[in-house]
Amino acid sequence: MSRFLSGGCWRAARSRARRPCLWGAPRGAAGGPGCVRGTPAGALELPGEPDKFGGVSVHLARLGALDRLDLAACQRGLQAAIQKWRSEGRTAIWLHIPILQSRWIAPAASLGFCFHHAEADSATLTLWLGEGPSRLPAYATHQVGVAGAVFDENTRKILVVQDRNKLKNMWKFPGGLSEPGEDLGDTAVREVFEETGIKSEFRSLLSIRQQHSSPGAFGKSDMYIICRLKPYSFTINFCQHECVRCEWMDLSDLVKTENTTPITRRVARLLLYGYKEGFDKIDLTMEELPAIYTGLFYKLYHKALPENYKAMRGIN
Amino acid sequence: MSRFLSGGCWRAARSRARRPCLWGAPRGAAGGPGCVRGTPAGALELPGEPDKFGGVSVHLARLGALDRLDLAACQRGLQAAIQKWRSEGRTAIWLHIPILQSRWIAPAASLGFCFHHAEADSATLTLWLGEGPSRLPAYATHQVGVAGAVFDENTRKILVVQDRNKLKNMWKFPGGLSEPGEDLGDTAVREVFEETGIKSEFRSLLSIRQQHSSPGAFGKSDMYIICRLKPYSFTINFCQHECVRCEWMDLSDLVKTENTTPITRRVARLLLYGYKEGFDKIDLTMEELPAIYTGLFYKLYHKALPENYKAMRGIN
Question: What is the DSSP string of A11-27?
């Protein structure tokens, strides 16, 4: 599916549980393209940048003289632009508003715009002009947390912590939320170091959890990934802001203790299985592959594929 | 790590690449708690709701008479509230603003508030009052897309499509973005049906891709998951809005064709390996487990764990 016009096929009308906009977009008076300037009717002409998906974007930060315009003129200008772009068959308007120009937001909302997202010093509002329900792609829907199961094969010990800010102090693997743009293994290694002082390196991805309505996710969903890490330092120096305890625990104790979470117990047993029968039984290995459209690379995790299958040598 | 105060240990000062707020928060005039009402000084008193993490929330939607207040009074009230909560040792202020009250946003920004997030008809701004850089948890950082590798073991055929909105029309698995609150397997089954008309059921999770700076992710990251699905209908009726072609293709052709993406080719080869040597070699199985803090359930995916390890029977 295209990431720019999401789903919503002609065959399968969606019944998405989206929060509604405040109003439908009314038809406004006629307007024209060009730079921002006053018109004889007291509106302003709003320049839009078309995109290849049928939408048009307006970046208020790129326009001058906004501070001198009154809100009524802004609203008339926006209304005229909506009518023009609708008549041209545009499917959507994206309105990018710097936080200090937020006085534009309520007038835009009264014309049918909703928040698409906002972060730091900028908000993006959208108005769907196409047929049927909006097919614009949603903003990010998931937090991503990553924990590190740091296992020392020589001693059969595993690194566990008890969080400070939890009601029940149960043993678990150190971890935390991904930073923007951070790879999963890097998050695990960083969080383990920050919480426990232990240095480690990424070995594999072990499990993926998806949870909805997770507390602290602001109504969004949560993806929680546990990685297998190999330690290369062993002296614990744990973060007293985040943890109340931190230990190297015998894996055979962690798999049996009641004082842990179901997911920690499960992954501890998975690790024990891997330790006894070979980590290839439990590991998802990582490889970088090229993204064909962007020229960038991404990281792909799956069960190891034997080389003859990877290269299709001797396979029919 | 706690999801409410993220990372940022006393030992490990973060150097996060966050976009800066516009200004630091200046110290304002004194103010007091209570309902919204005018004060002799012409400010307003702003009621805040403390949370257990040291923050305080203000919900403008719960306050009355906002429309009658002028912005200068709003700003003085907010400034007084900031000073009060800072002096009480509060670590953060969360300001929830309905879209039609967006005239509050710019004055709040001039006192140091930034957008934390916004969606539909509401924005949330934050101001960090604690020491050092903000330790507030970030909003959702990832889009989640899910594709279905629908494989018919009886015919050794796999369901593939060519997207309409791509520059290069390469064979790939049908899929799309998760709806809010939707489980991974459900997204795969839904997207496969919407794009191709084929009904299927979830079998396993095969691979996870993480990609940053992905186009269409609004600057956020992208998690793309491929599931193995088993078909139970076979007549293709594909969505002509989304696809230009849809076929049941011999798996042995897909593993060899040049006209596909690297990830599709890789997962096709993984499927061939599973088909020939047993799907247990490649599958991540799914199980529901209880979340101990919320009483909810979540779905956990990992390599199948033998029953004796799961129950720790006969394992030492």
Answer: SS-----PPPPSSPPPP
Contact B272 A218 (CB under 8 A): no
| Token code pair at residue A227 | 């990685």
DSSP-derived 3-state class of residue B240? coil
Burial code (b: 16+ CB inside 10 Å, e: under 16) for B218-244 equals: eebbbbbbbbbbebeeeebebbebbbe
H or E element, residue A72: helix A71-87
Q: What pLDDT score was predicted for residue B135?
A: 87
Answer whether B169 touches A (CB < 8 Å): no
CB contact under 8 A, A180 and B305: no
Paired tokens of A307? 């080389």
Query: Is the confidence at residue A257, as pLDDT, over 60?
Result: yes
Test B315 with A272 for CB contact under 8 angstroms. Answer: yes
Lowest mean pLDDT among A80-94, A217-231, A237-251, B41-55: B41-55
Residues of B in contact with A308 (CB under 8 A): none
pLDDT at A138: 87
Cβ atoms < 10 Å from Cβ of B3: 18
Give residue-wise pLDDT tens across range A51-74: 888 999 999 988 877 777 778 888
Interface A-B: count of C-beta contacts within 8 A: 415
Among all residues of chain A, which has the CA nearest to that of B175?
Answer: A1
Nearest residue of chain A to residue B97 (CA atoms): A106
